[in-house]
Amino acid sequence: MLTSIVTDEPSPSEGLPRHVQDQIGARLNELIPSVNTVDADTKLGRVLLRLRAALLDAEAERQVTKAFGDELIAVVPRLRRFALLRTGNAAEADDMVQATLMRAWEHRSQFRTGTNLVAWLFTILRNIHLNQRKRFRREVEDVDGVIAGSVSAPPEQEHRVALAELQFALNDLPPEQRETLLLVMVDGLLHTEAAMVLGCQVGTVKSRVSRARERLALALGLSG
To answer: Considering the entire predicted model, what is its pTM?
Structure first.
């Protein structure tokens, strides 16, 4: 179960101008494109069809609320992007999302209405990924090549070089800064949500994101 995080710690001031922060955010989202839809003909698409049917039955029996079902379905594209970023493999990412949905469904009675469903689901998916990496004895934080594999189409040469530089700078970040930055700036989680997923204080999230942005700005030569 998720626990509320009520403590905080000082975080560094946002030293980067807003336009530089926006540039970094735009480049990250270009490097790691959104996954907005799930094809109904895929394995994950068929799972979603069955989940929708189960949710309708559960709503009729008052086992879940309509709001729970609607939000659960709505967050699936974000879960898929989260999984794809960490695996670099569409089939493996879909399997992770499927496992997340199954676990969330099995433990739906543990979810407290009014708490953060997005953070709950992201935490489940992240734990599944960490457990998989432990089983296969892989390095959890090693994302080299993962991001490049998620780019859908090869850009022009100059553009490709810029994206490669961004990937290199991103991979050069300390693992905890990189993961926190991606959760907030790419996966779109609020600071409070990221803190729940990572099991740390909100101030820690703010500090990591700020420092990560500063390191990327320096590495990419973005002027303040």
So the answer is: 0.75
